[in-house]
């Protein structure tokens, strides 16, 4: 399999470039392609290094559990500061000013909560996946099945959103066709994960986070220099040239409805705590102390990044918005609104820096999809295969083989879905993912750790209630029912279902737990104390680092 | 570890047995009654929940302000263009970081030593 990939990969890229050159619809960006190739070569080198060190299942799923809090913090930050937030939030600030900040703050405010309530307990209780934690004192088969289902749903949908975004972005940045862009992302993703496992995935993420943070820092510094290092001058300049004028300095219509505002806030805050590829990152450190440090560093990096984006977004209003070279004949921004940050890169650093930022944006997508694919694959191999199908009797080699096959299958599926959903709205898909993660994974994970009364029946009922209600409410919301399906009036008045679907998930788990009078439920409640002691003190926790 | 230990986890959790040093019912009882453990739990929970509450108040206070009184955030900060909301946004970023900092500091310097003590005294 290894040699097949080695043959396939360069072949694909050469034909890629050749085809794109033939198409000639957009000039190839050689700076960007050169830097991107450099990044790919470097990360393939890392994958090779990681492949040699990845021997046990623990190596594969959790990078041997030996990462430091600082390294893991960078990787977590890398997962959060994706291409979507870099390009999307700066574009939102360019268009609407202050409203762009609201999204950034929602994601950021979730991190302290994750630290205070979840991170350490998760590390003390789990091994490879968050289903380890939920099924700790409950029946394995039903809980693992529902958790794996939740993980796969979230991971696949998120993958599709990233794939579609990647294809569009790469089409623009590199002049490669959508089909080849999606295939390139899929193949590289499978390559990193199958051979390098979590170790390669994490280092790709760390390198990308450093590149993106330093690139954005440079952009922000150049913008500030343009305005004589005065943010007041920058805001004044932006308000003077923006069509909305002074209004860009205040919240606009984005969150005018209180219910929608709170619901969106809940979804963003707790959706993050339900994303399987993020939860998995807490198992890559040696103990609760390092898990704690990783969140501290991650919060710092994410916060710093969003502060930079304010400067990037508002600076672009002046430096890109007033520059006719970045607009086409009809006055629209070339390449669409999401290209603001890329144009700004050229404005402050010329073509070479434009190439650098384009390559980093591509690298960002690769790193995030690799983490997603790994979390999906681990749900298949660890939760479904090793724990449900083989009842824990599978050897580590068998489990790792299944996870590699699963990665390949997920890669193929992601490419196909990416092609099918080419014209779908990415923002909608991403919102769907966070709402589902907040409703399916978070409530049950939270209750399993904090509530003695949770039983197997309650956990399964809660997950399903969250999943069904989140999807149903989204379909009935104005965003889908009216805008996509073109009905006259939405059956559910709000665009953000999290407030309602999370409540239903908690309610479902509670009702089906307290009414569960079976002897098995009594035993499950009885095992809470041992779980509580371990979650508090780490006594008996699997020390992944000793491998 | 002896066989009875496994009974504390779910009977079907065979998978975990070989990976963990499990606790016997006696262990659990003695840990729960241990004054240091009780103090650890009390302090940890107080720290966790008070900081969680602080973060929720900060963030949802902001969300409600956005929903009900956006003009407050749009006021000029000091006569210039920079608005109150811009400062509030930056302050929320800094507060999030500061709260995690407080937590890490307290956990490393107060709770971890206590935790180590409990582990030493309860697990031979």
Provide the residue-averaged pLDDT of chain A.
86
Number of domains of chain B: 2
Distance between the termini of chain B: 13 Å
The CATH architecture name of chain A reads Up-down Bundle
Number of strands of chain B: 0
Question: What's the alpha carbon Rg of chain B, rounded to whole Å?
Answer: 23 Å
Query: CATH H-level name of chain A... which superfamily?
Result: Sodium/glucose cotransporter
Average pLDDT value of chain B?
81
Oligomer: heterodimer
What order do the SSEs of chain B take from the amino end to the carboxyl end, as H and E?
HHHHH
Structural class of chain A: mainly alpha
Helix content of chain A: over 70%
Distance between the termini of chain A: 27 Å
Count interface residues per chain for the largest interface: A-B, 69 and 66 residues
Gyration radius of chain A, rounded: 23 Å
Number of domains of chain A: 1
H/I helix tally of chain B = 5
Strand content of chain A: under 5%
Sketch the topology of chain A as an H/E string, one letter per element: HHHHHHHHHHHHHHHHHHHHHH
The portion of residues forming beta strands of chain B comes to: under 5%
Q: For the report, how would you describe the main beta sheet of chain A?
A: none
């Amino acid at each position: 399999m290894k040699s097949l990939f080695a043959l396939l990969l360069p072949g694909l890229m050469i034909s890629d470039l050749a085809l794109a050159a033939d198409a000639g619809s957009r000039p190839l960006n050689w700076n960007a392609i050169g830097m991107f190739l450099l990044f790919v070569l470097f990360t393939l080198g890392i994958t090779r290094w990681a492949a040699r060190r990845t021997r046990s299942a623990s190596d594969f799923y959790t990078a041997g559990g030996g990462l430091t809090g600082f390294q893991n913090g960078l990787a977590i930050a890398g997962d959060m500061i994706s291409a979507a937030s870099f390009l999307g939030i700066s574009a939102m600030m360019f268009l609407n000013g202050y409203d762009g900040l609201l999204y950034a703050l929602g994601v950021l405010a979730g991190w302290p909560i994750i630290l205070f309530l979840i991170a350490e307990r998760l590390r003390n209780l789990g091994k490879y996946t968050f289903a380890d934690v939920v099924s700790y004192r409950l029946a394995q088969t039903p809980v693992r099945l529902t958790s794996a289902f939740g993980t796969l749903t979230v991971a696949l949908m998120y993958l599709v959103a990233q794939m579609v975004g990647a294809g569009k972005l790469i089409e623009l940045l590199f002049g490669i066709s959508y089909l080849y862009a999606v295939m390139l992302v899929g193949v590289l993703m499978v390559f990193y994960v199958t051979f390098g496992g979590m170790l390669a995935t994490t280092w790709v993420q760390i390198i990308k986070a450093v590149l993106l943070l330093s690139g954005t820092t440079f952009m922000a510094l150049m913008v500030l220099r343009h305005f004589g290092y005065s943010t007041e001058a920058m805001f004044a300049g932006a308000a003077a040239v923006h069509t909305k004028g002074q209004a860009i300095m205040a919240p606009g219509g984005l969150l005018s409805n209180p219910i929608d505002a709170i619901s969106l806030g809940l979804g963003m805050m707790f959706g993050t705590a339900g994303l399987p590829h993020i939860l998995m990152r807490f198992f890559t450190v040696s103990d609760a102390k390092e898990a704690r440090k990783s969140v501290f560093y991650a919060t710092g990096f994410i916060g710093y990044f969003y502060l930079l984006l304010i400067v990037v977004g508002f600076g672009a209003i002046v430096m890109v918005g007033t520059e006719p070279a970045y607009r086409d004949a009809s006055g629209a921004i070339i390449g669409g609104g999401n290209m603001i940050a890329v144009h700004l890169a050229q404005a402050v650093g010329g073509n070479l820096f434009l190439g650098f930022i384009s390559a980093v944006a591509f690298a960002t997508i690769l790193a995030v999809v690799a983490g997603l694919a790994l979390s999906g694959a681990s749900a298949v191999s660890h939760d479904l295969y090793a724990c449900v199908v083989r009842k824990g009797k599978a050897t580590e080699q068998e489990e790792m083989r299944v996870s590699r096959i699963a990665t390949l299958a997920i890669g193929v599926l992601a490419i196909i879905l990416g092609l099918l959903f080419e014209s779908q709205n990415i923002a909608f898909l991403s919102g769907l993912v966070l709402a589902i993660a907040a409703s399916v994974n978070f409530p049950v994970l939270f209750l399993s750790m904090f509530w003695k009364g949770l039983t197997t029946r309650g956990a399964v009922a809660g997950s399903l209630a969250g999943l069904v209600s989140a999807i149903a409410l989204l379909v009935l919301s104005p965003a889908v029912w009216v805008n996509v399906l073109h009905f006259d009036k939405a059956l559910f008045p709000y665009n953000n279902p999290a407030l309602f679907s999370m409540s239903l998930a908690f309610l479902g788990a509670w009702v089906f737990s307290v009414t569960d009078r079976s002897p098995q439920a009594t035993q499950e409640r009885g095992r809470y104390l041992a779980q509580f002691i371990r979650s508090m003190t780490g006594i008996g926790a699997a020390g992944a680092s000793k491998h | 570890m002896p066989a009875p230990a496994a009974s504390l986890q779910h009977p079907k959790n065979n998978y975990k047995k070989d990976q963990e040093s499990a606790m016997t019912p006696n262990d659990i009882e003695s840990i729960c009654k241990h004054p240091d453990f009780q103090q650890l739990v009390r302090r940890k929970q107080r720290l966790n929940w008070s900081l969680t509450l602080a973060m929720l108040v900060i963030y949802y206070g902001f969300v409600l302000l956005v929903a009900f009184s956006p003009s407050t955030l749009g006021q000029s900060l000091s006569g210039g263009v920079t608005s109150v909301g811009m400062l509030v946004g930056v302050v929320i970023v800094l507060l999030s970081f500061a709260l995690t900092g407080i937590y890490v500091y307290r956990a490393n310097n107060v709770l971890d030593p206590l935790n180590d003590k409990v582990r030493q005294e309860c697990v031979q």
